[in-house]
Amino acid sequence: MISKFRLIYHIEGIVQGVGFRPFVYTLALRFHLKGFVLNNSKGVIIEIEGFEESLDSFEQALFKELPPLARIDFWQKNRLTCKNDTRFEIRQSDEASTKSSLVLPDMSICDDCLKELYDPNNRRYHYFFINCTHCGPRYSIIKTVPYDRPYTSMQPFVMCEACQSEYTNPLDRRYHAQPISCPTCGPTLSLCSINGELLATNEAAIVKLADLINVGHIVALKGMGGFHLICDATSDRVLASLRERKHRPSKPFAVMFKTIEAIKEECILSAQEEEGICSLLRPIVLVKRNVKASKISGLIAPRIDRLGVFLPYTPLHVMLFEYLKNPIVATSANRSGEPIISEATVLKQKLHDVVEYYLDYNREIVNSSDDSVLQYLGDKTLLMRSSRGIAPKSFRVDSSDERKILAVGAHQKNAIAIYLNHQIIVSPYIGDLDNIASNELFEKMIERFSRFYDFTPDLIVGDLHPNYVSTQWAKRQNIPFVQVQHHYAHILSAMCEHKLSGKVLGIAWDGTGYGDDGTIWGGEFLVCDPSGYERVCFFEPFPLLGADASIKEIKRILASLLWDVLGDEADALLLDYFDEKALKRLKQIYTKKINSPLCSSVGRLFDAVAVLCGMEGNVSYDGESGLLIEALYDPAITDRYTFEIDDKMIRYKPMFAQMLHDKEPRLIASKFINTLVEMALTISHRYTYPIVLGGGVFQNRTLMEQILQNVTQPLYFPLQLAINDGGICVGQIYKSLQK
Questions:
Q1: Which of 40, 161, 606, 615 has the CB geometry, 3.0–4.6 Å to 625, for a possible disulfide?
Q2: 4-90: CATH, from 3.30.70.100, 1.10.260.40, 2.60.120.10, 3.50.7.10
Q3: Buried b (16+ CB within 10 A) or exposed e, 12-50
C-alpha cells in the first residue's frame, strides 16, 4: 500500500507580494496535493499532503520554478500527521507577534503589463497605474508587514468587481497584487500649475504635460518614490534655466530615454550595461557618452564623458513618452542636498521658483526613495546609490546572535541597516546628513523600520566620529552603543557580502573618515579580519587648511601640498590660483596650523590634481574631481609619478612638483591614476591575503579597471552594496555580530 505523508515548510526570504502563494497553489494542483499556504510575519508556511513521489516533485519545482521576484533565503521542513484535506487552499495571513517578513523594493513595469498597456482590447489600455504581482509599487506604499492591502496606501481605493475577481483568483497574475486597480476604481492624475490651478486629469493630463515639456517648460511628475524634475534634455536654453533655478552649476543630470535603441544612439554600451538598463530594476546606469553623435545638451554633464541613463519604469513614464519629442532630464525634485520630495504641498513650498507645472496623483507615497545609480566593471556592478528597485536590500547571515541590532551608518550618503532574525536589512539611500530635511529622513527611516518589524534595538552601532549626526543620535537613545572605525567598516561590509572570515588586506580610500588617532583618514591599508585590524600603511598626511573649507575650495589642498614639498618657493606658483591677499591669509593658516587637521585622504588628492588639470572654482558636488580626472585619462599613457614607501607611510608629495612640470592635464591625470594603481599593487605584493576594496574613491571606474587588470591576488569589493559610505552600515553590523 502506498502511504500518504504530510509536510510543513517554513520559508523565509522574498516570498510575500511576489506571487509566491499562487505559485505554490498551482504546483499543488499540478501534483494533486492537498493542504494550504499562508503568509505569516516571517514569510510563508506551507502544509502539504500527498504521495511521496508527488511531494518530491513538488519540492523540486518549488525551488526551480520560482516567480521572477521571489527568493528563498531559509527553509525548514518537518513531517506532520496526515489530516486528509480534500483540497489545497490559500489561507488568510497569520498575524504573529514577531514581524520579520521582508519588505520589497518597488519594481518597474513588467513585460506582461506593458503589453496590456498597449492593447486596445484590454480594460487597462493606457492605464497609468497598471501592475501585477511581478511589478509595481511595494516599498513606497507599505505601512507595515504583512504586505496586505489594508496595510498599504491602496487601502482607501475599494476594488471594483472586475479587480476583486482577479485579486481573489489564485490562477490570475494579479492574485493578491496589493496595488491592483483599474480606471474604474484606481487612483487618478491631476495636472496643476505651481499656483494650484487644475489644468487636466488622467490621460489628458499626461498629454498636456508632454506638450508643456516639448515647448520648453520645467515640470515635476510624481513617480514611484517621489517627484521627478523633468525637462527637455536636448535644449541648452532649458538646461541653463534649470541649472540657474536649482543653483546646480555642474552636477550631472540623469537622462531618461524612451527605448534602449534611443540610448544606443547617444552612448556606447557594453552587453552588461544594456542588460542592466533593461532589467526589472531599471537603475540609472553611468555609461560612456558618444559625444560626437550626441543630441543631448552639453549642459547635462559638463566636462565629463559619462552620462547617467535610464528607461521609463512606471506605466506613467511610459505613457508620457508616447507624446514626447525628445529624451528628458528626470532628476529628483529636491533642494540641493535634501531628500526627494514626495508631497505636492512640499513641492509647492520648496520648489515654487523652479517648477512651473506638476503632475500629481491621489495615492500616498508612504515611503519615499530616489532612483538607484550604478555602473559596470565588465560583468560586475559597482553600486553608487542603492534605492528604488534595489533597496530595502536584505540578505541572510550565518550568525546565531538573537539580538536586534541597528546600524546608523556614516554621515555622507547615509543608509541604515538592521539585524533581525538572522537577516541584515539595508535601507534605501538617505543622503548626506548636512541639513534638517535629511536629518529628519534619517530619523523617519529608523521609525519606518521599527514600524515594519516592531523593531526596538538591543544594540546600536555607529561610526567613530564624535560629531556625526548619526553618532550623536545614537548616544541619546539610552541603548548600548558600539562605535566602529570608518574605514574598517568599509572593508567589513565587503567581507560580510562575500562571506569572508579570514585575514584580508583591506584598501579603503575615500574623502574622509575619523581615525583612531583623531586625524582624518582616507588612504588606508588595513590587515584585518572580523575581530580587528592593523593599519599597515597609509598616505603621508597633509594639513587640511581650514578643515571643511578645503573640501569646497579645493585649491587650498593644492597649496598645502605644495608648501609641504617646496616650502616658500611655492608662493610664486600659487599666485596663479590665489590673489596676493588671500594667499597671505592662507599661508598664515598653514604656518600657524590654525584649524588644519592632518589628513591622509586619497579623495582629497583627487581634488588637488583636479585643480592642476584646470578645474576652477569650488567643488559643486561630491566626486566632481574624480569624474574630471577620469574623463582626461588616456590609456596610451603608461608613465607614472615616483613615490617612496617608508615603513608604513607612502611618501607621494613630490609628485605634485612633478605635475607642475608636466602641465598638460591629460598627462597629469593619466600618470596620477597610474601611480595610485602602482601604490595599491606594491603594498598588495607584501601580503598573500585576498584584497578587499572599499570607499568612495573606488567609484572611479578607470582606477578600478586598472587595479582589476593588474592585481594577482583574489580581489573583492561590494557588488550588492554601495561601495561608498552607503554600505558602511553593513560593516558596522558585521563587526557587532563577532563574539
A1: 606
A2: 3.30.70.100
A3: bbbbbbbbbbbbbbbbbeebebbbbbbbbbbbbbbbbbb
- The neighbour count for residue 348, using CB atoms within 10 Å, is 18
Distances (CA, A) of 331 to 253, 284, 523, 584: 6, 10, 32, 42
- The three-point CA angle 533-536-537 to 5° equals 130
Residue type, position 286, single letter? L
pLDDT of residue 1: 55
From the list 736, 685, 706, the residue with the least C-alpha distance to 493 is 736
Kindly list the strands in the beta sheet with 459-463, ordered across the sheet, starting from the edge strand earlier in the chain: 393-396, 423-426, 417-420, 405-407, 459-463, 481-484
Quick one: pLDDT at residue 617?
A: 75
Q: Is the pLDDT of residue 568 over 70?
A: yes
pLDDT at 89 (0 to 100)? 93
DSSP strand pairing (405-407 vs 459-463): parallel
Q: In this structure, what DSSP letter does residue 269 have?
A: -
542 Cβ neighbours under 8 A, 6+ residues apart: 557, 560, 561, 564, 598, 599, 600, 653
**Domain at 189-361: CATH architecture:** Alpha-Beta Complex (3.90)
For the chain, what is the mean pLDDT? 94
Place of cell 506551507: 46
End-to-end alpha-carbon separation of the chain, Å? 53
Average pLDDT estimate for 185-211: 97
Does the annotation count 535 as an active-site position? no
Catalytic residue status for 39: yes
pLDDT at 616: 81
DSSP per position, 585-653: HHHHHHHHTTT--EE--HHHHHHHHHHHTT--S---STTHHHHHHHHH--TT-------EEETTEEE-T
Q: Which of 21, 174, 385, 556 is catalytic?
A: 21
User: Confidence class of residue 274 from pLDDT cuts 50, 70 and 90?
Assistant: very high
Instruction: Give the chain's count of helices (H) and strands (E).
Output: 23, 32
Q: Would 102-186 and 189-361 be classified into the same CATH topology?
A: yes
CB 470 within 8 A of CB 698: no
Q: For the structural domain made of 383-499+721-736, what CATH number should be given?
A: 3.30.420.360
Provide φ and ψ at 698, rounded to 5°. -80, 10
The Cα 223–Cα 245 span in angstroms is 21
Residues 362-386, mean pLDDT to the nearest whole number:
96
Domains in the chain: boundaries: 4-90, 102-186, 189-361, 383-499+721-736, 539-716
Per-residue model confidence (pLDDT) at position 426? 97
**pLDDT tens by residue, 455-504:** 999 999 999 999 999 999 999 999 999 999 999 999 999 999 999 999 99
Interatomic CA distance for residues 128 and 413, integer angstroms: 32
Phi, psi of 536 (to 5 degrees): -90, -20
Neighbours of 261 (CB within 10 A): 8
d(CA 107, CA 390): 9
Residue 165 corresponds to which cell in the numbers above?
475577481
Give 294's pLDDT tier (boundaries 50, 70, 90): confident
Query: What is the distance, to the nearest Å, from the Cα of residue 498 to the centroid of all Cα atoms in its chain?
Result: 18
Catalytic site residue from 6, 39, 138, 535: 39
CATH number of 102-186: 3.90.870.30
Helix 624-632, helix 665-684: angle, nearest 10: 100
Residue bearing cell 607611510: 649
For residue 392, whether the previous peptide bond is cis, meaning omega lies within 30 degrees of 0, is yes
Span 659-678, pLDDT tens digits: 999 989 999 999 999 999 99
The closest alpha carbon to 534, from 675, 686, 730, 712, belongs to 686
CATH topology of domain 539-716: Nucleotidyltransferase; domain 5 (3.30.420)
